[in-house]
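CORE FACILITY INTAKE
Project code: CF-77B
Contact: R.S. (postdoc)
Sample description: multi-component assembly, two entities in total
Requested service: structural model of the whole complex
Turnaround: standard
Below are the sequence entries exactly as provided by the requester. Do not edit them.
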Amino acid sequence: MLGLDKKDTGLLLVVVVLALFAPFILNLFPTNSGMAFFNGGYPDLMQRFAIFGIFAIGFNILFGLTGYLSFGHAAFLGVGSYAAVWMFKLLNFNILPGLVLSVIAAGLLSVLIGYISLRRSGIYFSILTLAFAQMMYAIAYSDLLGRWLGTTITNGETGLQIYNDDPQILLGNGPNVPHLFGLEMRSKVDLALGPWNFTFPVGYYLCAILLILAFYLSIRIFRSPFGLMLRAIKSNQTRMMYTGLNAKPYTLAAFVISGMYAGLAGGLLAAMDPLAGAERMYWTESGAVVIMTILGGVGTLIGPILGAGTIKYMENIISKMNESLLDSWFAFLPDWLQHAVVWVATWFTGEGWHMTQGLLFMLVIIFLPGGLVEGGQKLTGLFGRKRAQTQTKTEPAE
Amino acid sequence: MDVIIPQILNGLDKGSAYALIALGLTLIFGTLGVVNFAHGALFMIGAFCSVALSKLLSVSYVTEDPTQKDFLGNPLKVETPYVESWFGPEVGGAIIDWSVPLAILFSIPIMIVVGLVMERGLIKHFYKRPHADQILVTFGLAIILQELVRGIYGANPIQTPAPDAFKGSVDFGAAFGFDPNVIIYPYWRMIYFFFSAVVIGGVFAFLQFTTFGMVVRAGMADRATVGLLGINIDRRFTIMFAIAAVVAGWAGVMYAPINAPNYHMGMDFLVLSFVVVVVGGMGSLPGAVAAGFLLGILESFASMTAVKEVLDGIDQIIIYLVAIIILLTRPRGLMGKKGVMED
């Protein structure tokens, strides 16, 4: 179907089902039960799942296939956001021009950065991309571009927002929030089924459809001769060059494609919430997408989506946990033990989420370099079931 | 001249910090072949050694002084640090005042332990893994160390003053025949520069003039052969890792009075230190030191008003810009050797 073989079609269907039924899957617990805390089915979080899923899928096309570790992909995310918000400011709140421009802007920037950075490989490439991204961050944070041109481009520390006196030449009587031809991103449909409450946000479904498209495209890239060429670059670039092939155009193409994915993700972030700030470009954000990709499984198709979902879910849920909540959870323990357990837990919850993130990250790299997908394969192997595996084979990063 | 000299001086202290961190990074690169993203965290731990020692020395007990009354009429509560009661107020006061220089000693065992645990416990297992894995696992470790420090000391910067004797500034210009008060330079920054010069010199001398250093240099050139000669090169490299940790820690200890330590200072310095290492040439110790000072001074020149008038804000991106240009024109960096970490 759709030019995919049976296995890939199955994989695509899994993603389609996961994406379309996410409001159900993420709201497993009745609203009034104590477990409702673990529900993730609210619009903001679901949108993040899909958006960072797109970001990670794109990153995986570069890192998973070619093995080039970019530590500066947040720059493209940020540029995508700025581009989209500028479209809102100049035209109107229709997100289509914003998304298109964000992809184009990120693509152009990635051509420039990629062309220069790809002259080196290995650790030098990582540091070059890191240097570029930090430079972009500094430019955005202090709005240097705007200062040189004598105007406002990124609005510096405050972040780019939409004001009433912006031109918005096409606004007319259109809605005053981001929309797609009148369909407001913020609107949603609620469904109450007994004790359960499900929310179906428009914005999320837009992101989900784009996620499915992005995923489909990535399968096609993985299975194409072009994808094969990228794998060849990863496994032995020297040998490839000896056979008379110039690897650089291929790597550059992969870099630009992944940059455009990042730009789309950035544009979507702005479409869901029309503002853009420099902190999206900080280098730890670039680290975060690397974490997502590795956690899910580098070089696998579905891994990045799983990784992005896991990280964003944990980030939201864990940083929501506070001391009083933990106290109530461990109230069944004897007092002294309760205090001890809560004391330990506060290190890893609430503001300590970064601690959990760092720990999780180290554990995955040390014990499970293939990520969750490899873990799943090991588990299925352990139980000896000959089920049709939905994943492609894991190839750890070089 | 009276415009240029202050900029060079201003660049020196930041350049010293870059050079010290980059020196340690290069040592680790050169010996173990590991890309250590947690090196900034070592710098940060060093700075917090200063904070910890000054807090430790100021631990006080409370006595009531019946001769004085506070505003409620109760006996006045007087806090006396234990150190003062043990050594007398004068010596004790001096000890507290000198807590930052004392932290240099205090930090040695801490940094050695941290370094050894890090190397034996984690990095040892990553010698053979790809550089990407090394970067990522040490990045994770850096996050954890940073969060630990935030958990203990909070998110706000903690002022850690230098000894009273080094407050104030030296009138640098007067010594060279300029007008007084044109070129002034804080004492502590000057001390920081001399301190790092001594440390850098010490590391080079250690590598150049001791048998241990000779073996390490041989191991950097050809690890397998040195191992075949029956020398336990791994143990020596581990010790070098501990030394690199101490150097980064010292850079942090002495930096505490210049910039109040906060938990993310390591991350802020790390990216720049990596740029410094790459510009200097990976695996080249003199290159790392030279590039550290060079970029520090360059940054301070770019923040001159005259330069800013031409291109506003250039000081914030100049280092990256120069690094990119150098990497593209001299791919091995300023002093990189052929065949060392080429890809």
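Facility notes:
- The domain at 6-320 of chain A is CATH 1.10.3470 (ABC transporter involved in vitamin B12 uptake, BtuC).
- Chain A has 17 helices and four strands.
Invoice: internal transfer
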